[in-house]
Specification:
This protein is mostly helical. It is built from twelve helices and two strands. The protein has a two-stranded antiparallel ribbon. A hairpin with a 2-residue loop joins strand 1 (183-186) and strand 2 (189-192).
Length: 321
């Protein structure tokens, strides 16, 4: 068994045990998640991800471990951006708070499956056609620019998305949550409840976010192990992060600009990789990437705490937590 295979095996075992622990001990069916519980769950997933970083360092060496940490931080920061959209989806479909945890879990597990497929295709394309990296680089620079200059006056409306219109056109939808069910039968016919729609929207919206994040991670590392593990750890921690930050996520007014700067930097790095490699060795590049990600993300969060942004969304109140 190679070192890579060993790390994959350990990752799989840890993942299964962590999910069993999270679902069996940290979560209860149809129960509201308190801030205290969300904090415990977030601490659990972050500690697990950082523990895997240490394991990677021991088994794979410093360079790959730091690439993993950089990619994880990148994905984790992008997850915060996801949360605001998730809140809008829940509010738009009037999902009861007791169903939040289960709906998020299924949506996130579906998102992981889609991401694995997306990553596999992306990695295969890059291995076969190296020039695809330059397309990714241009895409990241463009996306970062659009994100930095985005006008936030127009709020995301889940009912106006192509995904929802597709579901409404081709599936019989029920105008209720089915008391926690995803499919109900009325007059002998199956109807798909709002919870089913929300799960599909969560998974689909996450895949849209992945169009930015996965090329960005590939700009940090080409190693499949790093790309898969960083993505999966970040997405699995999204559920607890949702409950922890849902009342404060709208306070991170400048996080989007911090993420945008990171995307532009990674895009430029991908475009100028040939010349950068001539002047800076790979290990130093990893340290620089990690430092810039931490600086931009932490800086944008701290700046958001002390600066008010014109037109920023109001705090979201979902009731008692």
């Amino acid at each position: 068994m190679t070192t890579h295979q060993l790390v994959y095996l350990v990752f799989g075992i840890v993942l299964v045990l962590a999910l069993v622990f999270d679902l069996g001990l940290l979560s209860k069916k149809n129960a509201q998640i308190t801030i205290k519980q969300a904090l415990k769950q977030t601490f659990f997933w972050v500690t697990l991800a950082l523990g895997f970083f240490v394991f990677m360092w021991v088994e794979e060496g410093q360079k790959l471990a730091l690439e993993y940490l950089s990619a994880y931080l990148m994905e984790w920061s992008l997850s915060i951006d996801n949360i605001f959209v998730f809140i809008l989806i829940f509010n738009s479909f009037k999902v009861k708070e007791k169903f939040y945890s289960r709906v998020l879990l299924i949506g996130i597990l579906m998102a992981i499956v889609f991401r694995i497929i997306f990553i596999t295709i992306g990695v295969a394309l890059v291995e076969q056609f190296h020039w695809v990296l330059y397309i990714f680089g241009v895409f990241l620079v463009y996306t970062g620019y659009k994100m930095f200059t985005a006008n936030e006056d127009k709020e995301f409306e889940p009912h106006d998305t192509k995904i929802y219109r597709f579901l409404k056109t081709y599936l019989p939808l029920a105008p209720h949550d089915g008391d926690g069910k995803y499919v109900v039968r009325e007059n002998g016919k199956p109807l798909y409840t709002t919870l089913f729609v929300v799960v599909v929207l969560l998974a689909s919206i996450d895949l849209v976010f992945a169009l930015d994040s996965i090329p960005a991670v590939m700009g940090i590392s080409r190693d499949k192990l790093v790309i898969y593990t960083s993505n999966i750890f970040a997405v699995l921690g999204l559920r607890s992060l949702f409950f922890l930050l849902r009342g404060a996520v709208s306070k991170f007014d400048y996080l989007q600009q911090g993420i945008a700067i990171v995307l532009v930097i990674i895009g430029i790095k991908m475009l100028g990789e040939h010349y950068i490699n001539m002047w800076i060795d790979k290990s130093t590049q990893v340290f620089i990437s990690l430092g810039l990600i931490v600086l931009c993300i932490a800086g944008s969060i701290f700046y958001s705490m002390f600066a008010s942004k014109k037109g920023a969304p109001q705090d979201v109140h979902d009731g008692s937590i």
